[in-house]
Amino acid sequence: QVQLVESGGGLVQAGGSLRLSCAASGRTFSTYAMGWFRQAPGKEREFVAALNWSGANTYYADSVKGRFTISRDNAKNTVYLQMNSLIPEDTAIYYCAADLEHFSAVSLLSYDYDAWGQGTQVTVSS
């Protein structure tokens, strides 16, 4: 169906920035919504951001609103997560995910997502 590969994670100091990328293959990229989730050690996976097929509708967790920006380039089959003003609490494995059942609507629920990448580690030092 859909394969996802994340990149761009790493170690950054508090206040710094990172941009994550997620390259998709398989089904036509512009036919489904995409999201980013994260999982910190000892915690459950949580929603970070999502957008619809065109990128016109975006949603963010309150904890990242104003600091993170999700976007997509359908010509490059890629979704991005620009992360600014990073704090230690942002440390986690970040996963991109594809919601193959939604086109214009966007889900914030992980169980609505059908395909997942392998994850990329983001570590923010204080």
Q: Give start-end ranges of low-pLDDT stretches.
A: none
Measured by DSSP, the beta-strand proportion falls in over 45%
Gyration radius, in Å:
13 Å
Along the chain, the helix and strand elements come as EEEEEEEEEEE
Question: Largest sheet at a glance?
Answer: 7 strands, mixed
Give the distance, in angstroms, between the N- and C-terminal Cα atoms.
40 Å
The shape, in one word, is: globular
Mean pLDDT over all positions:
96
- In total, the number of strands is 11
Query: Count of DSSP helices?
Result: 0
Report the structural category: mainly beta
Query: Percent helix among the residues?
Result: under 10%
Protein architecture, described:
- The protein has no helices and eleven strands.
- Strands 2, 4, 5, 6, 9, 10 and 11 form a seven-stranded mixed sheet that branches.
- A hairpin with a 6-residue loop joins β4 and β5 (46-51).
- It is mainly β.
- The radius of gyration is 13 Å and the shape is globular.
- It has strands spanning 2-7, 10-13, 18-26, 33-39, 46-51, 58-60, 68-73, 78-83, 92-99, 115-116, 120-125.
